[in-house]
Fold this protein.
Amino acid sequence: MEKIILDVTEGVYATAKEARSANRIPMAYYGKGVENHGFSVDYQDFRRAYEQGGRSTIMYFKNEKEEEFPVLVQDIQYEPVSDQIIHVDVMAVQMGKAITTQVPLVLVGVAPAVKDLAGVMIQSKETIEVECLPKDLIHEIEVDISPLVDFHTSLTIGDIKVPDTIKILDAEDINILTVSAPRAAVEEETTTTEEGAEGEAPAEGAEGEAPAEGAEGEAKAE
């Protein structure tokens, strides 16, 4: 992926509202061992960059002094009615130090349980947490779904393959993918079970069963 560079301004707008009025997004830049900054970026420039890189790609902010700030997007705030981006938090990245972030999972291949058995894919996790040096960060992690051959197999974090330079922080036994039986098959199984239950012999004392010998006499005696 090409290096993503965003031109930012610092100190140009007095308030976040003023920046938004100029079709810019106010941004807070922070991190351990760095000086906090307040930047703003063109709305459409950031939208396109975020669609391309998301939270798992290092972006580079370049200010008016041509200084570059490597960052990772940490949080995005949206206006609840218009769904427009109104604020972004970014974390400073120090290229020689390990970082921790979420990387999205991308499914590849064909699952026989889906293709041949008409099963329904259920994905429990869409991202995983990793630790690595910034230079080793990858945009996405591919997951081969071909081992899902029936409704009893599943894929866990432990099945994910990544380069040796990346450490997965999620527990290996966490389930990420399964395939469930199609609805028609479940309904058919349920119907069959119910029909079998209806055909069972009535239990002792059920309606229509003749009373035990002597029972009527005992009732009269009372």
